[in-house]
Amino acid sequence: MRILLIEDDAMIGNAVSRGLGQAGFAVDWVTDGRAADVALAHRSHDLAILDLGLPKQDGMAVLATLRSRGDSMPVLIASARDTVRDRIAGLDAGADDYLLKPFDLDELVARVRALLRRHAGSATPILSFGGVDLDPVRRRVTRHGEPVALSAREFSILEALMQRPGAVLSREKLEESVYGWADEIGSNAIEVHLHHLRKKLGPGFIKNVRGVGYRVAEA
Questions:
Q1: What is the pLDDT, as a whole number, of residue 122?
Q2: pTM of the model
């Protein structure tokens, strides 16, 4: 899953980017409101973490622009603005959650996961399909109860596919889901990871829809 971090404080930005990366997320980081508008217009992220006191354009204006387009991307405000009035204003403007600074990084990651589950319509963190169970919190995968060892990229690709079982995701969409702006992507990187996933999960679990993309399927 791919997160857009909108934060102008270098120390906070570095810590959050590192923590989210360790939790398995691809993170892109911008430091002002105008850059946030440009990044959000591309609609390539699954969730945004938004500071309010941004240079060039305030975070509330960034949120208003996003929601005016009808974009339902989950937004978690992470701000030092700590009055009840501030929190109410942020939530009423379309934020899905509001976390006060300073915050615990583990709590931030847990809230991000909860928002992504809610947006996907899932009440449980465990993704299950076709005998495969994926636990995004513990970063574990089992097939018919037996553990399956996956690389970080393999796990992220499988998670993206299992978030929408049966839906066909193009190679470009999978790349957007698991790689950040700073990552180097080989021309056939997704195909190589999918090849390894098929070997570990069975050849029938991930189907190639010719000319369209990939989906998980009942074996």
A1: 67
A2: 0.77
| Tens-digit pLDDT profile for residues 183-215 | 777 778 899 999 999 999 988 899 988 889 999
**Could you give the CA distance from residue 64 to residue 61 in angstroms, rounded to a whole number?**
5
Are the beta carbons of 99 and 77 closer than 8 angstroms? yes
How big is the chain, counted in residues?
219
Q: Apex CA 107: angle with CA 104 and CA 109, to 5°?
A: 110
Q: 93-144: per-residue pLDDT in tens?
A: 999 999 999 999 999 999 999 998 888 776 677 888 989 999 988 889 999 9
Q: 149 by DSSP, 3-state: which? A: coil
Element (H, E) at 88: helix 84-92
Distance of CA 124 to the CA centre of its chain: 16
Give the CA distances from residue 204 to residues 5, 164, 207, 214, 215, in Å, rounded to whole numbers and listed in that order: 36, 17, 6, 12, 10
Residue 125 half-sphere exposure, CB side, CA atoms within 13 Å?
Answer: 14
Cα–Cα separations (whole angstroms), residue 24 to 7, 29, 86: 20, 16, 31
Tell how strand 213-216 and strand 127-129 pair up.
Answer: unpaired
pLDDT of residue 219: 58
In the predicted structure, residue 5 carries a pLDDT above the cut 90 = yes
Cα–Cα distance for residue pair 130/9, rounded to 1 Å: 44
